[in-house]
Structure prediction request, 258 residues.
Amino acid sequence: MTDKIRVAVLGAAGRMGATTCAAVESAEGLELVARVDVGDDVATAVRESGAQVAIDFTIPAVTEANVHALLDAGVHAVVGATGWTDESRARVAEHAAQVNAGRPQGQGLGVVIAPNFGLSAVLAMQFAAKAARYFESAEVVELHHPNKVDAPSGTARHTAAAIAAARRDAGLGPMPDATEDGWEARGADVDGVRVHAVRLRGLVAHEEILLGNPGEQLVIRQDSFDRVSFMPGVLLAVREVANHPGLTVGLEHLLDLA
Ligand SMILES: NC(=O)C1=CN([C@@H]2O[C@H](COP(=O)(O)OP(=O)(O)OC[C@H]3O[C@@H](n4cnc5c(N)ncnc54)[C@H](OP(=O)(O)O)[C@@H]3O)[C@@H](O)[C@H]2O)C=CC1
Ligand SMILES: O=C(O)C1=N[C@H](C(=O)O)C[C@H](O)C1
Prediction:
């Protein structure tokens, strides 16, 4: 019989944290050993519980500090919380490389940061990146519950960045846009891609990618109607993180999609 993977959940009392604790408790081969929330010390909690993997669904303001604490504590990290930038990801990659240089071969720590663990969202992002080079225009609309604290969503930022990279690779220039006045109505600019954020009671997490050419349009849409939609991706990352030392950004890398 193989040992169960001991898992801590950070942000355990939150919307995602609570759903994740329930998923871990009922998952084969996993054991929930710590529920960590505001006021708890992350390092102490993971050390005392013996956690091997910690899942972070806290808030943008604290998630990077949590990941550094987990690396120092020798714990793999699976991160769903948003708020990441190129700079904060680079700091984590460097920290992980330092820590792993001092660990035995094959026992490096992994950090998986996934802007979205939902399969429909991961596929929508992949399809959008694939399609982007063929269209003159592309805009992203993300729609969420009104309790969300950040905008645009991490998923929309990741999507826009992927579209922008695909356009750059294809040698496409800026998108057509004659706007002179009223830029505040044109959404956020993420790498030259316009991103619009809707907050509406009743919604959970949704994204629409609009791609346009003269005389035609492609719309890619995904809907998470329930937070359980994120759980298969979270559990996959928990089971796989130890096989991916260093920093991995995006669930697509664990799904053989990238
Ligand atoms: N990657 C993905 O697939 C998904 C990512 N998300 C992201 O996950 C994050 C959490 O979302 P959601 O669950 O809706 O938010 P919630 O606000 O419901 O949950 C966040 C939890 O973290 C707690 N918290 C705050 N500070 C700390 C701290 N220092 N240490 C430990 N816990 C802390 C909060 O406590 P308190 O409320 O008392 O401050 C709260 O219980 C967001 O960034 C969201 O965008 C959400 C869905 C899917
Ligand atoms: O806050 C949320 O709810 C979600 N956050 C993530 C994001 O910002 O992309 C993932 C999903 O959209 C739900």
Notes: The mean pLDDT is 97. Helices lie at 15-25, 42-49, 63-73, 86-101, 119-131, 154-169, 231-240. Residues 5-113+228-254 form a domain with the Rossmann fold fold (CATH 3.40.50.720). The radius of gyration is 19 Å.
